[in-house]
Amino acid sequence: MAVAKTSVLILDCAEPAALAEFYATLLDARTQLGADPDYVEIVGNDGVHLAVHRDHGYAPPSWPRPDDSQQAHLRILVSREDMDEAEREVISLGARPVDTKDNGGPRDVRLYSDPAGHSFSLAVAAPPPEVARAPEPQDGLRLA
User: Fold this and answer.
1) Cis omega (within 30 of 0) on the bond before 97?
2) Mean pLDDT, the chain cut into blocks of 10 residues (144 residues total)
3) CB 112 within 8 A of CB 118
4) CB 65 within 8 A of CB 58
5) Domain boundaries, given as residue ranges, for the chain
6) Helices in 27-143 by DSSP H: which ranges?
7) How far is it, in rounded angstroms, from Cα 29 to Cα 50?
8) Which CATH class is domain 60-129?
């Protein structure tokens, strides 16, 4: 197939260096500057590959929308036991909580906007599937 196996999600913003640093810190990744100073890539060791691009007429998206329609957003997976710490981290980096449906209990998905206004969520990662093990042999039934 002619399509490259790596895709890059590009977020428009007014200040690409600042937004790239936000995501690089959040995702434990690094930033890469190319020939275009208005384009910065965020590349991580775990396959993370994002980019931010300066849009001189950028306006933050409206989210959540009153009609509850969906927009594209990032979902960042964290373990259940790390959810509260991850929330503190994203807020300390400049994210803003946008979830207005907090019932005061634990939540598997928490919604935020990044410093440029793009929506993203922290979500509990599904536990890895259990590896099926062969049953233990019964007395007298040994496999050779």
Assistant:
1) no
2) 70 95 95 91 88 92 65 84 93 88 71 92 80 56 48
3) no
4) no
5) 1-58, 60-129
6) 83-92
7) 10
8) alpha beta
